[in-house]
What does this fold into?
Amino acid sequence: MFEGRVALVTGGTRGIGAAITQCLVESGASVAAGYSRGKERADEFVQQFGDKGSNVSIHQGRVDDVNDCNRVVKEVMDRFGRVDFLVNNAGITVDKTVRKMSVDDWRQVLDVNLSGAFQMTKAVLEHMIERGSGRIVNISSVIGETGNVGQANYAASKAGLFGFTKSLALEMAQRGITVNCVAPGFIGTEMVAAIPEAALAKVVEKIPQRRLGKPEEVARVVRFLLEDDSSYITGAVYSINGGLDM
Ligand code: CAA
It folds into this structure.
């Protein structure tokens, strides 16, 4: 399906990002997966692709550092010669109630989740414009719509991605570039596993389907948005949350 295409997936070696990398490689794409820490683990991640390993590269860099963003894109261009798809997936949580949240806790999350997406987008955008084609998918969250106790910083960053997506989609609408958002609910990843047990039990109780989502389920929505046949979808938000926002 994606033979000859190149995807750059930030945070692409863990959690939802790892599932996206896997899904796109299985669909024939070459994938450059970004990661910020844990080189050993990232190396192990690549090894699992076996004979498809040459279609996967890993790139260390912080999306909240503009120099890292530009360097990573240069590395990907050197390795694969093009970037067709950018998936802004890298994200962190620093969960605290606003009363306990420091300015630094706030900034850290906004810098990675929101400014990171902006900076990575800036780093690939001119290349996509030159080629007159590209796909950008921003991974937001149901929390950006609903808010959540202990997640004012995260919710603000994920809500910010909705506005960023729609604004960029408008700017790129006549340039062959689509920009969309995927907003997952609670997905079975390390991020969700870190929620205190009692809080997690309450979360699952609130999900109409009474289960966590799977990273692969989110990856399939991302893949759908990257398909050639999805070219009329832009500025959209695709929710995948077991009914949590109803
Ligand atoms: N409504 C309003 N306030 C509530 C509340 C509720 N239902 N439950 C707890 N609180 C408030 C209390 O009023 C109190 O507030 P102050 O700090 O202002 O005094 C505080 O919470 C007390 O809570 P705790 O005693 O449990 O102590 P804490 O401060 O250590 O932890 C917490 C609070 C950070 C919210 C913690 O319970 C927590 O981490 N909860 C989970 C948050 C969560 O769901 N994160 C999702 C991570 S996964 C993800 O983000 C992926 C995605 O996209 C979905």
In short: The two ends are 34 Å apart (CA to CA). The chain is about 45% helix and 15% strand.
